[in-house]
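Hi U.,

Before I forget, here's the chain from the pilot set. I'm dumping it here mostly so it's searchable later in email.
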Amino acid sequence: MDKLQEILQYRFNNIKLLKQALTHSSITGNEHRNYERLEFLGDRVLGLTMAHLLYKMFPDDKEGILAQRHVHLVCADKVAEVVKKLHIDEYIMAKDKPTALRTNVLCDVGEAIIGAIYIDSDIEQAMAFVERNWVDMIDETGSQKDYKSRLQEYFHSLKKPLPVYEVVNKEGSEHEPVFTIKVAFDENTFACGKGKNKKLAEQQAAEELLKMLGLQDD
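Structure:
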């Protein structure tokens, strides 16, 4: 835990909070010993912090552009990217390595650590952690277009009806669901995406369909 605290640039007063943030429900179903409650809190702190940062950094952006940036920066892939960059994945306690390395688990742990820092200290320390580790990913040259918008624009250019997103599966617990969502170009061309909520799954499905159609990012 000493090495991890050096990596996080934060030293816990209550080290049990850090251990809890690293503990998956496959190790214990006790909600006061696994990361689920901390993840719930950290998710909200991350969202607030990112909104605050974007509001300050882009004073001329309209609400819609800020919202696009926000979705891009708090999505599961970005949080998991931060977790792997800091090598936090090496400390996750789960029933096996494949479980620990799932994107949604990496994301949950990242959010749980933010929540743990918040509980252990205050909102300023938690926001400082987010700013340190997310600021380099904020694109200061332009907004990040979301994949659903890209796909919708492409359908519109072909005079096709708007894409329809269909939930084809839901796995996991009520607290930690994983949605699988399908979107189709035609009867023979479709793609699926997975995410811990419908919005993230739809974004991934749209991204995969754009790849299948040979469309590159702008």
